[in-house]
Design goal:
Blueprint lengths: L22 H17 L3 H17 L4 H19 L2 H4 L4 E5 L2 E4 H24 L5 H10 L4 H30 L8 H31 L17 H22 L1
Antiparallel strand pairs: 1-2
Length: 255
C-alpha cells in the first residue's frame, strides 16, 4: 500500500457479495454485531449469531483452511481462559471432578463466551478481513474517527512489515556471527541489544520517511484521491437485514 492508493474504492462487480458493500456500512455493521453478541444472554441467540457469521463468511468467500486455523487458534486460547468458569462459578452442581464441583451455570457461561467470541471474530474476518487497509482508513475518516487515529492506523499497517524485515535482518546477522539463543545472561543481553538497535533504526527510518513525505507535500493529512462511494440498494438491504436480525435476537433474548 502506498499513499497514492488511499481513497480509491475498487469497482469489483464480480467479486464476493460482501465486498460490494460500502466499507463504512461494513464497519458499522461489524461494531453493531459485536455489541449484539456481548449483550445476549441466551445460548440460542448466540447460536443464531454464529450461524449468521458463518453465512457472511461464505458470502465473503473466506478461505476455508486458513479460516479454520484462525478459529482453532482462538478457541485454544478461549478454552484456556474460560476453562476455570465451571469450577469457580457458583450454582447448581453438575458433577464433580477430582473433588472439585462443576456448576451448570459455569458451563453455560463458558459456552456463551465461546459462542460470542467465535461469532464476533468470524464476522470480523468476513466484513473487515476482506477489506483493503486503504479502504478501512478512508471509511474511518468518513465516519469521523479522529484524524490522528486514522493516520496512526495507516502508518502502523504500512510499516509493521518494514519493522519485521528489519528485525529479521538483525537476527540473521546475529546468527551469522555465531549467536545461539540459550537460557543464560549473555543471550538475554544480546536480545536486549537487538531490540534496542531495532528501536534506534526505527527512529532513524521514521525521520527519513517524514523528510521524504514533507518533500512530497505532506502537511499532516492524507489527501484522499477520488470521490466517496455513494450508498447503493445493496448497502441499504444489508443494513436493514442486520438491523432486523438484531431486533429479533433482542426480543428472543428477553422473551
Amino acid at each position: 500500500m502506498s499513499v497514492i492508493d488511499l481513497g480509491l474504492p475498487p469497482d469489483d462487480i464480480d467479486g464476493p457479495l460482501l465486498q460490494r458493500i460500502d466499507p463504512r456500512v461494513r464497519m458499522l455493521a461489524c461494531a453493531a454485531f459485536a455489541l449484539l453478541c456481548v449483550s445476549l444472554n441466551h445460548v440460542i441467540g448466540l447460536e443464531f449469531c454464529l450461524v449468521l457469521a458463518c453465512a457472511c463468511g461464505v458470502a465473503a468467500r473466506l478461505p476455508l483452511l486458513n479460516t479454520l486455523k484462525r478459529m482453532a487458534s482462538l478457541d485454544g486460547f478461549m478454552i484456556f481462559v474460560v476453562g476455570f468458569l465451571p469450577f469457580t462459578m457458583a450454582g447448581q452442581t453438575l458433577t464433580t471432578l477430582a473433588g472439585m464441583t462443576i456448576s451448570v451455570e459455569g458451563m453455560v457461561r463458558a459456552g456463551q463466551i465461546l459462542l460470542a467470541s467465535n461469532a464476533v471474530v468470524l464476522m470480523i474476518l468476513a466484513l473487515l478481513g476482506t477489506m483493503d487497509e486503504s479502504e478501512m482508513g478512508e471509511a474511518m475518516r468518513e465516519l469521523h474517527v479522529p484524524r490522528k487515529f486514522v493516520q496512526l492506523f495507516l502508518f502502523t499497517v504500512r510499516y509493521i512489515d518494514v519493522l519485521k524485515l528489519e528485525y529479521q535482518r538483525l537476527r540473521t546477522s546475529m546468527k551469522v556471527r555465531g549467536f545461539r539463543m540459550g537460557f543464560n545472561l549473555h543471550s538475554w543481553q544480546s536480545i536486549g541489544y537487538l531490540f534496542g538497535m531495532l528501536i534506534v533504526r526505527s527512529l532513524e527510518r521514521s525521520e527519513r520517511i517524514l523528510i521524504a513525505m514533507r518533500c512530497r507535500g505532506y502537511t499532516g493529512e492524507f489527501r484522499m484521491l477520488g470521490r466517496s462511494r455513494t450508498l447503493t440498494w445493496l448497502d441499504g438491504m444489508f443494513g436493514i437485514c442486520l438491523l432486523a436480525f438484531a431486533v429479533a435476537m433482542t426480543f428472543l433474548d428477553y422473551a
